[in-house]
UniProtKB/TrEMBL annotation:
Upper taxonomic lineage: Bacteria, Pseudomonadati, Bacteroidota, Cytophagia, Cytophagales
Pfam family name, one: SusD-like_3
Recorded family membership: Belongs to the SusD family.
Subcellular location: Cell outer membrane
Protein name (database record): RagB/SusD family nutrient uptake outer membrane protein
Residue span, RagB/SusD domain: 274-551
Top-rank taxon, per record: Bacteria
Record-linked PROSITE patterns: PROKAR_LIPOPROTEIN
Keyword hit for Metal-binding: no
Gene3D superfamilies found in the cross-reference section: 1.25.40.390
Any single Gene Ontology cellular-component annotation: cell outer membrane
Amino acid sequence: MKAIKHIYYWIAVLIPVLILSACSEDFLERPPQDSIVDASFYQTDDQVLAATALLYSKVWFDYNDKASYNLGDFRAGTAFSAYNDRGNVLFNTTGNTPENGSAWRSFFIVVGQSNLAINNINQFAGTAVSPTVKKMAIAEARFIRALAYRFLVMNWGAVPVIEDNLKLLSDTTVSRNTPESVWKFITSEMRLAANDLPETPIRTGRVTKWSAEGMLARFYLSRSGVESNGSGQRNQMFLDSARYYAERVITRSGASLVKNYSDLFLFPYDNNTESLFSLQWVYSPGAYGTQNTSPAYLAYSSDIANGDGWGGDKSATWWMISQYDGIKATATGMQGRTLDQRLKATFMLPGASYPEITQSITGGEQKLIFPFTGTDNNFLSIKKYITGKAKDVGGLSASQNYGNDTYMMRLAEMYLIYAEAVLGNNASTTDAVALAHFNKIHMRAGLAAFEGPLTMDAIFKERTLEFAMEGMSWYDLVSLHYYNPAKAYAILNAQDRGLFFTVPDQFPNPTSWTFTKTSWATNERTINANSGNFLLPIPSAELSQAPNLQKPAVDYYKK
């Protein structure tokens, strides 16, 4: 019992009270005193839906706060921090790295809350609860649990699969499960969710059948490489499944691409036509855990924020900027401009204007013009998810308290999944539908049609440009690593993550920029990704309390 109690105490004891209790900042450091939700709660459709509502926000709080971009972008090399979070930037994340522990904890809290929702609804739902709502709520919890396990298995490899929190407390044999069996479990769970979720959301922001089928497309694409043992060959049956589900979502869901890429992140963008699943944050004065705090750490300055704005040292990496068409290598660095609208919507370059954001300046305010500062280094700050001051969002923001949602899946991904699934194990493809789907995304960004043939390099680059700073790039590398680890290491080890200086040709409204590496910053520009450091280490606090996590992994069999 003692061997497993630390990691799972939070799953079995802490999680049930989240539905009824307000949450203070230290709720993860001490057990709350509130009682567990009882049978009297699940007596109406509204109560059942309330029980699953926090699956869309509070349980993901610690992941969304800082871990999402630390793992999803810093480790992937799309962005970096010059002075903070260096372990993730330099690819030496340890068992004591804060974001490692907070992500692990958050994902298991998601698992625990999902388990309790399933068990409690099955056990306590009253006769007034409609069969439709009961079935849908359980499917919601299955969906959320499967997604949490997708993050767990892709970050840490073998992890324990837990379906019943209470049985866990008396089971001292719990151990990690093999990645292959975890993937089998979560794919099966998502299929069950897809069968039981409605085609249209029962309430705004709730997941649907198409959310689940979109996740199945994502899951099968990753799973196609899981059992390849680095052979370079993916499972064709799973590639076909990824293609099948992606096409269904594209053609049947009713979702549609937002016309202008930048509009995806302009307030109020929540639950737009392209969103298949988003975390549902709310601006909530006086509450803690249901608001979005990530913008506080990403905004480059308090000049555009609400008493926060601590992201002044966060920036696109040199490697990331090199991915944009039109930015060309020169004898001394890089120079140019790009027609790709995703650059301005994702990162701020000196002189770029953002009329939707108010900027404090000496003597007053103006519409944001990103400053040109420094003498030999500066930062291309994060724009994505930055919505500005309270006055820019109708008063609905404050320090560390923002209401804009976090995308977890957009329709754009379905087009690129389809293209990659068609490419499959081939070196290239000229498939007309795959190329058309790819160009839906490529051309929306303002670029000329890609003539083909499509290759894995082209698709990987497009995904990098489309989803940078959405916490996704790392998982693209993990998917690649499943079947071609050498290529994943090569991409990572070729990246430059060091300081550089960006000069506009004019200020404001430049037409091009010159990029030069900072001459004195010669160390810590590159990393050494390898089989020993690719996956995250299990947090040290968990290993010290749960020795079972160090035992060899075993296959998981659903009971």
